[in-house]
Amino acid sequence: MNDNGSQSPRRRETDRWLEPGKINVQVIYVLYLVAFAVGITAIIGVVLAYLNRGKGAPWVQTHYTWAIRTFWIAVLFSIISAFLMVVLIGFLGFIATAVWIVVRCVVGLQRAALEEPISNPQSWMV
Fold first, then answer.
1. Are 48 and 27 in contact (CB under 8 A)?
2. Environment class of 73 (CB within 10 Å of its CB; exposed 0-12, middle 13-18, buried 19+)
């Protein structure tokens, strides 16, 4: 006799990307990069970072802090650049912000792939 009702549902391998860890951090960085084409994905990425902050290994925590700060600092730079569009230098600010985001995401992806922490996650710099 086989009673399948008493067994817990088998966890799918694809569910790992929601759990705190290497794959989740990489998904967040990719969502930030995809946001250049589909803007809403950056918001999804920062929500995932906030949901998993305080969970996982210490090296993962530095990535969540880095990702959250990347989002909010980019929002600040974008607002400043939007105001500077009046004097026509805001365009350069948007380009600089985009490059800054890409560099931070690439650094984060590289460190996450090696399972290394971000050396100074509170930094505004790359």
1. yes
2. middle
